[in-house]
Amino acid sequence: MRTAHRVEQVRAAEAALMRRLPDGELMRRAATGLAAVCLELLSPAGVYGAPVVVLAGSGDNGGDALFAGARLAGRGAAVTAVLLSPRRTHPGGLAALRAAGGRVLHAGPDDADVLERVAVPLSRARLVLDGIVGIGGRGGLRPEAARLLPLVEASGATVVAVDLPSGLDADTGRVSGPVLRAHLTVTFGTHKPGLLLSPGAGVAGTVHLVDIGLGPELARLAGGPDGPGGGPALYCLQHADVAAVLPVPGRDTDKYGRGVVGLAAGSERYPGAAVLAVSGAVRSGAGAVRYAGSVADAVLAAHPEVLVHRGGPREAGRVQAWVVGPGLGTGSAGEEALGEVLASDVPVLVDADGLGLLAARGPEPLYRDAPTLFTPHAGEAARLLGVERAAVEAEPLAHALRLADAYGVTVLLKGDRTIITEPAAPGGAEGLGRAQGPGGDGAGAEAGRGGAGDARERRVFVNTTGTGWLATAGSGDVLAGLVGGLLAAGLPVVEAAAVGAYLHGLAGRLAASGAPTTAPDVARALPEAWRQVASTATG
Ligand SMILES: NC(=O)C1=CN([C@@H]2O[C@H](COP(=O)(O)OP(=O)(O)OC[C@H]3O[C@@H](n4cnc5c(N)ncnc54)[C@H](O)[C@@H]3O)[C@@H](O)[C@H]2O)[C@@H](O)CC1
Ligand SMILES: Nc1ncnc2c1ncn2[C@@H]1O[C@H](COP(=O)(O)OP(=O)(O)O)[C@@H](O)[C@H]1O
Ligand SMILES: [K+]
């Protein structure tokens, strides 16, 4: 499991660790890891004489970059440091760089002809280290740093962000002004949420984590009564985590024991959505799929194994979870089907037109005893919250949390980095918190009145397996069926959502393999995605 922590958690862990270590030890570890990555990047074309530019701001982020630059200079690279606040540069880092033979240019707000001076080293650079600002940054980059961005971009150099791309908000991934786009980010101690979430992930490039010994401190803080506390701000599943929870039938399992998932989907106008949702459900690990609705013939033609009912969900027979919404239509038939499904006592996944129908009613908690999961894309989330789509895209995590609180549901917010979040725990930070588990939807609605946006006591997952090729019509329907089937198979709601997003993203990659793909192909690739994941558990 990869995890990410908020800045206040990182600071508290660093402070605790620093009390036990010699002065400067943490920065030494960070700079050593950073320099090792840079040397690897430079090695193929040779380190000796390689032109490198270090952009150094006024804080410890600049210190990391300067110490790493000193190591590169010590290996023969031609390093130029560009100081954005010459009077406030990290003294130890600057001294080390000078001692190793690095060149220094001043580029502060009061320095004249800065652009002319830095233009030549930047145009020659093979590697640029961005040590302008790290977790101490606020807002987009300041003008004295922002004016260098066009030169860096024009240089064609590989840009390595130190800890995080300068100008990116570490906690949210928000980009609120100029930001230096990186090919690679070398981050220290733990991932920062902004590196994994959109839109930040899009400017961070590949993220490389350097272990500086923070792990045990972060774990101690998570369990302790003082400081920012709480577990990781974000969890990011890996193959082994998914393999550990995939439902596997035992010797005595029958099809009903594996779970039956019901789908209330499709309409004369959108029969394909029902077929696609079913195509995900039949490959989800559930033992059987029931379909209730008006396009049973289309479903049967594509999937003869499905149990169909040509009426409403209430009369369709027993299921362990319902999916409602894909292609359902927003007329009275859709409204009725949604009402029947929500009145059931099993977990319910609401997607597409089901969400449209709920958005029309406005935000209000869904008081259900069983868990409810919403699977909106940004546009649907915006309608459910009554905000602009752009606002959701700029800060998806905050909006996923708001949505979970406003409706008292678990949320899977689709996008290039899909977010899954539980509703707030009852009583906010002091409440039962994560131990509450995924079943507390109704209680979450209570907490939502107080603590919107407080992610401390609930698990939030981000999925990184996707690919832009998944942005193809109907791929969301496949996901809905898949996650519904995982719910029916007995996975807790937040796990079903996170595991479903993981397999769906991987299937998207396998189906696309670098070329356009279709929703049916994504569904067909699900078994291979499952096999690849499962093989990590069996060796
Ligand atoms: N605290 C620690 O123990 C460690 C910190 N490390 C490094 O230290 C960094 C944090 O250092 P600091 O707390 O000094 O903070 P930063 O170096 O991230 O930034 C603070 C400085 O940047 C300036 N600044 C803030 N916003 C800006 C903006 N929008 N545009 C331009 N300049 C801006 C501020 O005036 C301030 O002087 C981490 O990101 C990491 O790189 C690592 O060395 C590991 C150990
Ligand atoms: N740029 C992207 N990178 C990765 N995944 C994406 C991207 N864009 C969309 N997706 C994924 O594709 C799916 C699209 O779902 P959705 O928007 O509901 O489409 P539809 O309504 O056509 O089924 C979601 O799983 C989403 O996370
Ligand atoms: K940086």
From TrEMBL:
Keywords from the named record: ATP-binding, Isomerase, Kinase, Lyase, Metal-binding, Multifunctional enzyme, NAD, NADP, Nucleotide-binding, Potassium, Transferase
Biased composition (Gly residues): 428-453
One Pfam family of this chain: YjeF_N
Entry binding sites for AMP: 414-418, 476
Protein's UniProt keywords contain Lyase: yes
GO BP annotation list: metabolite repair; nicotinamide nucleotide metabolic process
Positions annotated to bind K(+): 61, 130, 166
Residue stretches making up the YjeF C-terminal domain: 238-533
Cofactor section: Mg(2+); K(+)
GO molecular function terms listed in the Swiss-Prot or TrEMBL record: ADP-dependent NAD(P)H-hydrate dehydratase activity; ATP binding; kinase activity; metal ion binding; NAD(P)HX epimerase activity
Residues annotated for (6S)-NADPHX binding in this entry: 60-64, 134-140, 163, 273, 327, 377, 477
NCBIfam families for the chain: yjeF_nterm (TIGR00197)
Record text on subunit structure and interactions: Homotetramer.
The protein, known as: Bifunctional NAD(P)H-hydrate repair enzyme
Protein's organism: Allostreptomyces psammosilenae
